[in-house]
Write a structure and sequence with these properties.
Elements (H helix, E strand, L loop, with lengths): L17 H10 L2 H15 L9 H15 L4 H12 L6 E4 L2 E4 H11 L1 H7 L5 H14 L6 H11 L2 H20 L5
Antiparallel strand pairs: 1-2
Helix pairs in contact: 1-2, 1-3, 2-4, 3-5, 4-5, 4-7, 7-9, 8-9
């Protein structure tokens, strides 16, 4: 989806810098990615408090994932922060419809689970670790995440296995608490 950045707000600054900062988050060197994460965190999800610019940020990151089939560890971490964040009633206009910001961002990530599941085997180190943290939290909203994590538990070893097992335990617990499991 194409966003008109002038229709959304950022914490403490202009949204004009966000597209360029997203570029650094997704394809910059390690220092640029780290700096971009910190800037985007403060602009769209400061202390877990989402503002309307979070919606196009999620769409941009997921669009990049669809094109490149990979994301930087920092991009996975930002998706995690946004997924876990709250919007406290803030809304955003998407295709002419007024929608709750938190639900929109979470919904877009959940809709992308098939793509996320397809790219998971190729992720390494921090990419995988941050994705597993995100997927564990998705368990509260969708059981579709369980087979993705179970596949990684079956195929992994070492530290990767530990991250997958931890994610599966949390996802199953969250799904059970939400009443999603039979």
């Amino acid at each position: 989806m194409e966003w008109d950045w002038s229709t959304v707000q950022a914490w403490g600054g202009s949204v004009e810098d966000i597209p360029r900062t997203l570029g650094a988050l997704l394809s910059g060197d390690e220092s640029a990615r780290d700096s971009a994460f910190n800037m985007l965190y403060s602009q769209v999800a400061s202390s877990g408090d989402l503002v309307s610019a979070a919606a196009p940020v999620v769409d941009h990151i997921l669009g990049d994932l669809a094109r490149r089939r990979s994301l930087s560890a920092e991009a996975w971490l930002l998706l995690n922060v946004i997924f876990s964040g709250g919007s406290y009633g803030r809304r955003v206009t998407v295709d002419g419809a007024d929608v709750e910001l938190e639900e929109y961002c979470r919904g877009r990530i959940i809709e992308s689970l098939p793509l996320i599941g397809a790219v998971t085997p190729g992720l390494q180190d921090k990419q995988f670790e941050y994705l597993m943290i995100l997927l564990s939290k998705v368990g509260e909203f969708s059981v579709d995440v369980i087979p993705i994590i179970e596949r990684e538990v079956a195929a992994s070893s070492g530290e990767r296995l530990t991250h997958a097992e931890d994610a599966l335990e949390v996802a199953l617990e969250m799904a059970a608490e939400a009443g999603l499991l039979d």
